[in-house]
Amino acid sequence: MELNPCLKHKVLRKSVREFAEGVLGPIAAEIDHQARFPWEVVEAMRPLQYFGIQAPPELGGAGLDTISYAIVIEELSRVSAGVGLCVSVHNSVALYPLLRFGSPEQIQRLAPDLIAGRRIGAFCLTEANAGSDASGVETMAVRQGGDYVVSGTKIFVTNGGVCGLALMFVVTDPGAKQAAASVLMVEKERPGFLVGEIEELAGMRCNPVSSIFLEDCRVPAANLLGRPGFGLKIGLTALDTGRLGIAAQALGIAQAALEAGLRYAKERQQFGRAIASFQTIQNYLADMATEVEAGRLLLYRACALKDSGQAFGTQAAMAKLFCSRVAREVTNLAVQIHGGCGYSKEYEVERLYRDAKVTEIYEGTSEIQRLVIARGLLAQPAVGRAV
Amino acid sequence: MNIVVCLKQVPMVSELPWDSKTGRLKRGQAEGMMNPACKHALEAGLRLKQAQGGRLTVLSMGPPEAQEVLYEALALGADQAVLLCDPRLAGADTLATSYTLARAIQAVTPDFDLALLGCHTTDSETGQVGPQLAEELDLPAAFNVEHLQLAGRTLTVRRVSDGFLETLELDLPALLTITTQEFTPRETPLGGLERAFAQGAVRMLDALAIGADLELVGEKGSAGRMLRVYSPAAQKKGVLLTGAVKKSVQELLERYGDRLGGLIGQDLASEEEGHG
Amino acid sequence: MDKAGRDVWVFGDYRNYFQNRVTLQLLARGRELAAALGGELCVLVLGHELGQWVEEYVAHGADRVLALDHPCLRAYQSETYTRLLVDLALARQPRVILVGATSFGRELAARAAKRLHTGLTADCVELAVNDQGLLVQTAPGFGGNLLAEIVIPRHFPQMATVRPGTFQELPHDYERQAPVEWLPLPAGLKPERVRLLKSERLPPREQALENAPVVVCGGRGMASKKKFRNLQELARLLGGQVAATRPAVYARWSEEGTLVGQAGRQIKPQVLFSFGVSGAIQHTAGISGAPFIVAVNKNPGAVMMQMADVGLVADANQTCLALIRELKKRLRS
User: Fold this and answer.
1) Alpha carbon separation from A143 to A102, A110, A150, A216, C116 (Å, rounded)
2) How high is the ipTM of this complex?
C-alpha cells in the first residue's frame, strides 16, 4: 500500500500551484468582489489542457489519472474556488459523461471543442421542482422527425453564463416520466437556448451561475447521449465523478484557510506575543490540520479506487460529505483566528468562508451523500469485507 | 542543433520558514523550485529548438529531489534529463561545480552546439558558474544575454553590461547565460507532465560515471574553506511602535520629524505645487 | 606558505569611472591588506589611453601600476582581458587579487579564478588578513541571513569581488609618486572569439535609485500588485524612488531594475522606508549605506525590523496609506 504522493503528483501539484498563484492569485479577490468570470485565465488554461484533464491525449487531453485530477482541482480551488468549480464541473460532469457514454461520432464531433476549452461545459439537472429528487424533472423533449423540441427551465446552472455546451436532463417520453429521463447535449447557439440572469450568490462569485431557459429549442436526435431513458444512469455516474471534484475543491478551500490561519496566528500579536503561542489557537490549528489531512486521504483513496477500475461511488460520497464539512469547519476556525479581520473583505478568509458552504449543497447535498453511503452499506453483509 | 541547459533547484525563498533563534533559514523544510534565471535559459533553449529542430538536454546537480525540476523541464519539452547525484559532489564551490558540469556535459552530450545557463541563482547569486564553465569547456561565451538570434552557425546576442548595451557575435559551439529580462517561461501543460513521467526516468549519474577526478569535485575540489558562520547581528537599538496604524504613523512623524523632516516637507511643497 | 608573493592586486576598472568608484574603494582596503602582508599594492589596468587612470590610481594609493595600453584593448572584452590577467598573475604571483563586482568585473574575476585554479569569493563585505597571512573574506552565505568567513588556504592567488560602495575610498593625493610599468602586448595573443559589433551607452537614468535621498522599498508583505502601487504615491510625496525585493520583483509587482540587494542595486538614501520586507541577506546586502531606516512589518521579529531605527508593527499597505494621508494633511495645514 502506497500512501505517499509519488514524484509525479508532487511535481504536478507544484506546477499547478505555481500557475494558480501566478495567474489566478493576483485577481482572486477582485473577481470575487466584482463577480467577474476571468476569461483571461480560461485563455491561459486552454493550451495547458485544464479543460481535458483526464481526456485521452489522442483527443488533445492531458490523460491524467484521477488523483492528478483531484490535485489539479484542489490547487486551483486553493487560490480561487470559483475557477476550481468551473474546471471541475466542465471536466467531471460535462466532458466525462460525453467520453463515457457518447458514441464515437458524438465524441469526434463534440469532445475536441470541450477538451480545448473552446466550449465550456455545464450540467443542467436542477429545476424549480427537481433537485435532490431527480425524478421531478419537468423539462420536456418531444421528438419531431430527426429532432427533439425542448422546453423547460433549469436553475442554478454552474458555468451557466459562459457554457458552450450543456448536458440537459429532459423527459423524452412525457407519458412515463422516470423511465424516460434522458440527457441531451445542447450547444448554446441553438435558437431557443436562453441564458437567464446571473445569480447573486454568497460564494463562488466569479462563477456565472444562472438559469437556462429552453423555449422550443430544436436539438438533433444525434445529440442524445446514450439511449432514451438512460438519463438517470448517466446522471448518477457523472455525479460520482463530480463528487470527487467537489471534494477536491472543498479540500483546496480548507487548505487555503489552514494556511491563512497559520500565517495570521504567527503574525498577529496580542498580550505581547504571537497568538499562535496560545493553546486555544494551537488547538484550532491542530484540529484544522488533522481534518484536512484526513479529508485528503479519504479523497485520494476514492480516486485510487476509480483509477484501478473498482467501484468508488460510496467512497466518493464519503469524500464529498467529509471534505465539504471540513471546508466549512476549517474556514470557520480560520475566520475565528482572524477575529474582526476575518470578517473583513481585506482578508482572504472571509471569501473562503463564503465559498466553503456551498460544497455541502451542490452536486448532492450532505443529506443525499449520507443516503448514498447508507444505501451502499446496507446492500452489503453486516460483516465488513476485507479491504 | 544540440542544446544543453544546466538547471539548478533552489529553495523557494519566499516560503522559507525562518528560525527566529538562529536567524537562519530552515533550508531542509523549503520546497524546491527551478531557479528563475534557469527557467528563462530553458525557455531560450526551447525556442531555439522549436525554430531549428534538434535535441535539448537538461542537466542538474543536486540531491534526488532535484529530479523535480528536471521532470518539469521534460514536461516543458526537453528531450532528455540527467541528474548528477552523488554525495561526493556536495559542498562544491563554483570552481568544483564548473569542473563537474563540464565533465557531465562531455560525458552525456559531447557533440553539443550550445550550452545555456541562468545568469545567476537566487540562493547564491554569485553568477560565477557560467563564466567558469565557459573557461572549463574553452568556449566563446556571452553572459547576461537578453536577446539572441542564430543565423547558420553564428549567434548574435544582446546584453546590458555596466550601463552599455552591447551587441556581440560568436560562433557555435558557444555558451550563454540568460537573464530574467526576456524569454518569459511558458507554463507547464498538464499532459506534458504525464508524458514526462510515462517517457521514462531522469538519468541519474554519479561522479565516476562522468569520469570526474574525485579530487576536483565537491568539497574536496573546492578552494574556499568556511571559517565560521554568524548572524550579522549588528542590530541597532531601534524603537518599536506597536499601536494603531494611524497613531504609529503620527508618532513617527512627530518624533523623527527632524530626521525625516527637512527633505520631506520641502519636497512635499514643491511636489504639490507642481501637481496643483 | 610562501608559495605566492606578498602583493595585493586590484583590477583597475575605469569604465563608468564617475558613477562607480569601486576601484578606488578597493585601493583603500587593499593598502591595509598589503601592509598586513608586507607586500605592495599594485593596480593592473588594461585598455587604451590609460594615462589619466594611471594617475588617479597612484593618487589614491597604488604602490605600483601595471599598465597595458593598446588600441586592441579599447573595449572591455572578458576573454582577452582574462588571458592577460592570468598570464601576468602567473608570472608575478600576487597573493591577493581584488576585483570590483561590476558586470564586467564579475565575468573577469570568475574566468580568471578558473584559469588560475583558485577560489573566488563573491560580494565580500569585509576583507582582512589573519595571522597565517591568509585573506579572510566575509561574504553572505547560504542564502540565509548569515555572513560567512571564508579563507582560501591552499590556492593562490586568493581572489575576491567586492560590490561598489562596500569600502570608503581614500582622499586623493596628486603629489604621490609610484612606479608605472608600461607593458607590451604579449606576442601571439589570440584574437577574441566574441566579436563586439556594437556598444552604446544607455541613458544614465539607471542611477536614479542609487542617488535618491529617500527610497521606499516594498517586499512580499505588500501582498499584491495593486497595493504595491501605493508605494509610488508615497515615494512621490517624499521626493523619493521606489525599490523592491526579490519576491516583489519575482511576482512582477515591480520591475527588475528596482531590485535592491546582492543581485540588484546598492542604495544609500538618507532615509529608507521598508514595507513588508523580511530582510534576507540578499536584500540587506544592498542597503548597508542607509543611515536611517524605517521598517514596517507585521512580524516584529523580522530581520528588517531589527535593522531599523524605527519599526512599525503593522500591516505594510495600511501603514503606507496612513502615511500618505498624514503627509497630505500636514502639507495642507
Assistant:
1) 20, 22, 9, 12, 87
2) 0.86
Residues in chain B, pLDDT under 50: 15-25, 263, 267, 271-276
| Residues A274 and A266: beta-carbon distance below 8 Å | yes
| B 74-113 residues with CB < 8 A to C | 93-95, 98
CATH at A349: 1.20.140.10
The answer to whether the CB of A35 falls within 8 A of the CB of A354 is no
| Helix A231-267, helix A348-357: angle, nearest 10 | 150
Round to whole Å and give the CA distance between A307 and A312.
9
Contacts of B173 (CB under 8 A, 6+ apart): B112, B113, B114, B115, B139
Whether the pLDDT of residue A178 is over 80: the answer is: no
- In 3D space, the residue among A44, A219, A242, A226 whose CA is nearest the CA of residue A159 turns out to be A242
From chain B, pick out residues whose CB is under 8 angstroms from the CB of C327: 253, 264, 268
Report d(CA B75, CA A62) in Å as an integer.
11
C116 by Cβ neighbours in 10 Å (0-12 / 13-18 / 19+) ranks as buried
Q: Domain check: are B17 and B124 in the same one?
A: yes
Residue B120 vs residues B156, C100, C114: alpha-carbon distances, Å: 21, 17, 17
pLDDT of residue C56 exceeding 60, the answer is yes
In angstroms, the separation between the Cα of residue C135 and the nearest Cα of chain B is 11
Q: What is the pLDDT of residue C328?
A: 85
Question: In this structure, what C-alpha cell is assigned to residue C107?
Answer: 565575468
Domain hosting residue C86, numbered range:
8-183
> pLDDT digit string (tens) for A281-337?
999 999 999 999 999 999 999 999 999 999 999 999 999 999 999 999 999 999 999
Residues C175-231 pLDDT 10s: 999 999 999 999 888 999 999 999 998 876 556 788 888 999 999 889 888 899 999
Q: Domain boundary residue among C121, C150, C183? A: C183
Interface check for A268 against chain C (CB to CB < 8 A): the answer is yes
Residue A18: active-site member: no
Q: Which residues contact C20 (CB under 8 A, 6 or more apart)?
A: B162, C13, C100, C102, C164
For residue B17, the model assigns a pLDDT of 47
CB contact under 8 A, A8 and B193: yes
At residue C273, φ and ψ (nearest 5 deg) are -100, 130
d(CA B137, CA B130): 11
Q: Which residues contact C205 (CB under 8 A, 6 or more apart)?
A: none
- Quote the domain boundaries for residue B253: 245-275
Number of domains in chain B: 2
C250's CB contacts (< 8 A; 6+ apart) are B14, B36
Mark whether B262 and B182 lie in a shared domain: no
Regarding whether B98 and B12 lie in a shared domain, the answer is yes
User: Can you tell me the distance from the alpha carbon of A115 to that of A91, in angstroms, rounded to the nearest whole number?
Assistant: 8
